[in-house]
Design goal:
- With 458 residues, the protein is an alpha/beta fold.
- The chain folds into 3 domains: 2-96, no CATH class; 105-236, NAD(P)-binding Rossmann-like Domain (Rossmann fold), CATH 3.40.50.720; 267-430, Dihydrodipicolinate Reductase, domain 2.
- The chain has helices spanning 2-12, 28-42, 48-61, 70-80, 85-92, 114-125, 147-156, 217-220, 266-282, 326-333, 368-381, 432-446; strands at residues 14-18, 21-22, 66-69, 105-110, 133-140, 168-171, 176-179, 182-188, 205-209, 229-234, 260-262, 284-294, 320-322, 341-348, 354-362, 388-391, 408-411, 416-418, 421-428, 451-453.
- Strands 6-7-8-5-4-9-10-11 form an 8-stranded mixed sheet, with helices on one face.
- A hairpin with a 2-residue loop joins strand 7 (176-179) and strand 8.
- Helix 3 packs across helix 5.
Length: 458
């Protein structure tokens, strides 16, 4: 299976997974574990022989770009009564059999901090045929004489997310980094409106601003003054009338007129999909969101002056009560939540992975079993299965979610329900899970987000 999965990915942008767990670039043990997990949560045997037959048939078909869930395909194939997997797949894949990946879209990362480097890793890892997203440049302020080497080393090694999966080479004469064969130009600039990107062969690019320095249309609009940039995406909550996008929830609102938009915050991305499905199923009258959030670079390592309240106190030694706009920001993606939510945040001494506690009053009485069964089904087969995950483990802790590609993971064993009051706990990797959501938006802006098979259904 492994060489066929790799070939289809590299040559045709076919991404295979088992209930959202990608099989691209994974080891034999990873693939076996994904099948075992599918069996555990579905209580339906998922033999490797069945998924292997699907992969072999796909290798014969050679479809266009598509995201395939092998577990769901295997289940649907069984239910179809068909006895020929290739014929079945050709019928299902008809819309993408002749599809082309296109010419690719240039991407520029403005800023190269925690989110910027993870975006770089994900985009490089998603390079596939080279016809999707092409990471062309990063823009930073020069920090030291050996700035280029330091930037490359920060991409190569990460204390939270581990080493880069591949090779990195510094091209000092060209002021560039070569990562798994992807050439990334490093551009030094202190002015967002002073770079001619076409000088570097960059055209019609999507610029992702990771700095958070500008959050309104006027500030971010400076990027559009540069040659070579066509759209700007902010990796922070946008101000004013800017469209704040939570992928999977309101990304259908994006039009060609949105040249500047926001990917909202990590917390908003984690809670909004869960709130949407709960509201659709049970109705939500009102609620409070308490976020237990890992510390960030905005805080001080030890006590020192900080313009914000309490954030000047040592992030490594304290739980720090602070504000969050995530609860109000939900309404920007889901207008039906306008005025329904309050929120607060506690920063805690962990470097990554956070938790949101949703304390909700519902419009109907229910039970924890009913809510959990619903959320588990959503995570497996629902339209938001790439945003919502579900776990029910008595030993799981925050470190277990480092590297999760879902926006949020419901902890089923923690759910509390009394009548119409429900408390739902949602874990999220506030760095990697959020970055995956950002990449999904970039793919949509680029027009090369792959179709899903089976299709995402409400």
């Amino acid at each position: 299976m492994i060489p066929l999965i790799g070939q289809l990915y590299r040559d045709h942008d076919v991404v295979m997974s088992v209930h959202g767990r990608s099989l691209v670039g994974r080891s034999p043990i990873d693939i076996i574990r994904a099948h075992y997990y599918a069996h555990k949560i579905d209580d339906v045997e998922l033999p490797l022989a069945e998924t292997s037959a699907i992969v072999e048939a796909l290798a014969k078909i050679q479809p266009g770009p598509v995201s395939l869930d092998l577990a769901l395909l295997a289940n649907d194939f069984r239910a179809s009564g068909s006895d020929d997997v290739e014929t079945y797949l050709r019928e299902q894949l008809a819309p993408v059999l002749d599809a082309s990946s296109g010419q690719g879209t240039d991407v520029v990362l403005y800023g190269f901090g925690r989110i910027g480097r993870l975006l770089a890793r994900i985009i490089i890892d998603h390079s596939g045929s080279g016809n999707g997203l092409n990471l062309r440049a990063i823009v930073v302020r020069r920090g030291s004489e050996n700035d280029l080497v330091k930037r490359a080393n920060l991409l190569r090694r990460d204390s939270v997310h581990g080493p880069f999966n591949g090779t990195i080479k510094v091209l000092e004469d060209e002021n560039a980094i070569l990562a798994n064969g992807v050439r990334i130009q490093v551009i030094y600039s202190n002015d967002p409106a002073s770079v001619d990107y076409t000088e570097y062969g960059i055209e019609n690019a999507i610029l992702v601003d990771n700095t958070g320095r500008w959050r309104d249309a006027d500030g971010l609009g400076q990027h559009l003054q540069n040659k070579g940039i066509s759209r700007v995406l902010l990796t922070a909550p946008g101000k004013g009338d800017m469209l704040n996008v939570v992928y999977g929830v309101n990304n259908d609102k994006i039009t060609d007129e949105h040249t500047i938009l926001s990917a909202a915050s990590c917390t908003t991305n984690a809670i909004t999909p869960v709130l949407k499905v709960l509201n659709d199923r049970f109705g939500v009258k009102r609620g409070h969101v308490e976020t237990v959030h890992s510390y960030t670079n905005d805080q001080n390592l030890i006590d020192n002056f900080h313009k914000g309240d309490r954030r000047g106190r040592s992030a490594a030694l304290n739980m720090v009560l602070t504000e969050t706009g995530a609860a109000k920001a939900v309404a920007k993606a889901l207008p039906e939540f306008e005025g329904k939510l309050t929120g607060n945040a506690i920063r805690v001494p962990t470097p990554d992975v956070s938790m949101a506690v949703l304390n909700l009053q519902l419009e109907q009485e229910t039970t924890s079993d009913e809510i959990n069964a619903f959320l588990e089904e959503v995570s497996l087969t629902g339209a938001l299965r790439t945003q919502i995950d579900y776990v029910a483990s008595p030993e799981i802790v925050s470190n277990d979610f480092v590297g999760s590609n879902r926006a949020g993971i419901v902890d089923g064993l923690a759910t509390i329900v009394t009548g119409d009051s429900a408390v739902v706990y949602v874990w999220y990797d506030n760095e990697y899970g959020y970055s995956c959501q950002v990449v999904r938006i970039i793919e949509q802006l680029a027009g090369n987000h792959p179709a899903h098979l089976p299709a995402l259904k409400a």
